[in-house]
Design a protein that fits this description.
Layout (H helix, E strand, L loop, with lengths): L5 H8 L6 H12 L10 H6 L15 H18 L5 H5 L14 E5 L14 E5 H7 L3
Antiparallel strand pairs: 1-2
This protein binds zinc ion.
Length: 138
């Protein structure tokens, strides 16, 4: 555990009560998760209540996955005459039938990574950048 800023972590999180058993098992789970790129962030992520995935630098979808999801989503949207952003398609404004270009979209975890959703193609959807930002926390 060298390299962690224990003083700062202690000051920030010591007011909360933690179950050491729970913390230990969460650490183990996250250390074993291939999607977690930043292991140094694991403790702070757990102490913060496992919400802020920026501490973990979770691996995101690769370009090939994004492109493939984009293509099938766009084709389906064009057939239905609605937006290729599924959230825009639900709306009632001018964007409801807008076909976004891939550069205007970002990959999103359908089931949030923090809730056990995998970073693979079956859990990937493309959202327009506005909706992707609005969804947040993945
Ligand atoms: Zn949208």
């Amino acid at each position: 555990m060298r390299g962690l800023e224990w003083n700062r972590l202690y000051k920030t999180y010591s007011k909360k009560k933690y179950d050491p058993k729970q913390v230990a098992s969460a650490v183990q789970r996250l250390y074993g998760d291939a999607y977690v790129k930043n292991r140094k962030g694991v403790f702070e992520y757990i102490l913060g209540g496992e919400v802020d995935t920026k501490f973990l630098d979770v691996r995101m979808f690769d370009e090939a996955t994004k492109r493939s999801v984009y293509e099938s989503q766009t084709l389906e949207a064009q057939n239905k005459g609605e937006s290729n952003c599924p959230l825009c398609a639900l709306g009632h404004d001018a964007n409801k039938d807008k076909i976004w270009s891939i550069s205007d979209m970002d990959a999103d975890h359908v089931a949030a990574w923090s809730k056990g959703g995998a970073t693979d193609i079956s859990n990937c959807q493309m959202l327009c950048k506005t909706h992707n930002r609005a969804k947040g926390n993945r």
